[in-house]
């Protein structure tokens, strides 16, 4: 992504992206694309490297009625989606929390869990997850 892409995301979603996300996306880990399994499209899915996808993901989750994700409330406005698994499970950053952790909302379990301590560590967590799926299938 470019600065212009990141600015477009901010403008479309009406939010300020954290500096760590901007730095990371300006230097997206291309090695991750090379390590992805055949069934993954990481740049359009789990760690979107396309501003239109990031905008789509965030508008999509915000478009649901309260209760779709969290009991009686809508998708929180401070949860910034950075990627998705088949538009069912959502990787996101909590912009209000002050943390760089990558969180996951898992649709089957209906809960949020931490996937990586930081965005910088998230690519390694993704590759480990892919390896687990490949080993278990």
Count all strands and give the number. Answer: 4
> N-to-C SSE series?
HHHHEEEEH
Structural class: alpha+beta
**End-to-end C-alpha gap:** 33 Å
- Reported by name, the CATH topology is SMI1/KNR4-like
**Average pLDDT across residues?**
93
The portion of residues forming beta strands comes to 15-25%
Largest sheet: 4 strands, antiparallel
Q: CATH architecture, please?
A: 3-Layer(aba) Sandwich
CATH class: Alpha Beta
Gyration radius, rounded = 14 Å
Number of helices: 5
Biggest β-sheet: strands ordered side by side in the sheet:
1-2-3-4
Low-confidence stretches: none
Give the % helix. Answer: 25-40%
Q: Which word captures the global form?
A: globular
Number of domains: 1
Short description:
This protein is an alpha+beta fold and 137 residues long. It has helices spanning 3-13, 19-26, 30-35, 51-62, 122-136; strands spanning 79-85, 89-94, 102-106, 111-116.
Task: Give a description of the structure.
With 137 residues, this protein is an alpha+beta fold. The protein has a single domain (3-136), classed as SMI1/KNR4-like. 38% of the residues lie in helices and 18% in strands. It has five helices and four strands, in the order ααααββββα. Strands 1-2-3-4 form a four-stranded antiparallel beta sheet. α1 (3-13) runs parallel beside α4 (51-62). The mean pLDDT is 93.
Short key terms for the protein model shown above:
5 helices; 137 residues; four-stranded antiparallel sheet; alpha+beta; SMI1/KNR4-like; globular
Architecture blueprint of SSEs:
Blueprint: H1 3-13, H2 19-26, H3 30-35, H4 51-62, E1 79-85, E2 89-94, E3 102-106, E4 111-116, H5 122-136
Antiparallel strand pairs: 1-2, 2-3, 3-4
